[in-house]
Inverse folding.
């Protein structure tokens, strides 16, 4: 089964907001397994053991196969679920959030809590940033020096990504190609070089493209 491109947070990090003197600190982390997510939650709970609450949510899998939300003592449905819903709404995968609350003395009510916990996660995502992880193929194209000008111009005009150019006895263009464009790329190279290029199909590799908010 071929993996699909997906969105996640740009990096691990945290962001804090304050609402009616309560501090809401959102910790975000990329994870691949439920065990990683649970370990991170426990780590934050130990770090912030004096906090009033450490509420959590995570989603794992290309189709959100694993989803969990925990209110950690807040009224049922007012913390973990709103946090999880932000991940689902923004179509983020393989990410866990822990929102640490230090109570400021003013109760927020159910609606206020839902807005606060969901808002803490949403603001943290905006602060940290989002990337799309795209599965691509590394393909080396080796041509003679006499062919290189035509091939390089054609690659750039077609917007194929050249990762590196190696100058040796011949010239090798190291290209990064989306999996869905792989057949078309090989067909183009074959046509541009009259089937004279040496094409080496390399490994698959993830690249990360920032997503504008």
């Amino acid at each position: 089964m071929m993996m699909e491109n997906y969105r996640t947070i740009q990096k691990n990090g945290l962001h804090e907001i304050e609402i009616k003197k309560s501090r809401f600190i959102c910790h975000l982390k990329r994870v691949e397994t439920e065990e990683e997510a649970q370990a991170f939650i426990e780590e934050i709970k130990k770090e912030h053991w004096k906090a009033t609450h450490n509420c959590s949510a995570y989603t794992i899998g290309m189709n959100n196969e694993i989803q969990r939300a925990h209110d950690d003592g807040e009224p049922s449905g007012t913390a973990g679920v709103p946090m999880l819903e932000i991940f689902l709404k923004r179509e983020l995968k393989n990410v866990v959030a822990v929102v640490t609350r230090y109570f400021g003395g003013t109760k927020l009510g159910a609606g206020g809590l839902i807005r606060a916990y969901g808002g803490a996660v949403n603001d943290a995502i905006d602060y940290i940033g989002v990337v799309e992880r795209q599965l691509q193929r590394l393909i080396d194209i080796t041509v003679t020096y006499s062919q290189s000008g035509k091939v390089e111009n054609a690659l750039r005009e077609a917007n194929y990504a050249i990762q590196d150019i190696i100058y040796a006895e011949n010239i090798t263009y190291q290209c990064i190609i989306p999996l869905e464009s792989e057949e078309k790329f090989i067909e183009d190279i074959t046509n541009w070089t009259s089937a004279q290029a040496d094409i080496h199909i390399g490994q698959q590799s993830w690249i990360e493209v920032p997503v504008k908010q």
About this structure: The longest strand covers residues 130-143.
